[in-house]
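Dear colleague,

Thank you for sharing your sequence with our group. We've completed the structure prediction you requested, and as agreed, I am returning the results in plain text so they can be pasted directly into your records. Please verify that the sequence below matches your submission; if there's any discrepancy, let me know and we will rerun it promptly.
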Amino acid sequence: MNGSGQTYGTYGDVEAGAIPDLIAIVADSGLEGYALYEQFSAVDAPDAIPVYDVEGTTLIGMFAFGDK
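Please find the predicted structure tokens below.
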């Protein structure tokens, strides 16, 4: 859990049944960070979503979905 009270993890955690608030992802900038799982998994997700630091507050890049 981060300082903001959000849980964070990987897609492996999701597959194991533990869905974190923030999911590890690599931004288009090449930096590793976290995206809000609800944005990442949304059926109507935009073409790109923001990627944040582990605290979920500092924007470090964007993640563009390749199939949109």
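Summary note from our side: The CA atoms of residues 48 and 64 lie 4 Å apart.

Kind regards,
the structure core
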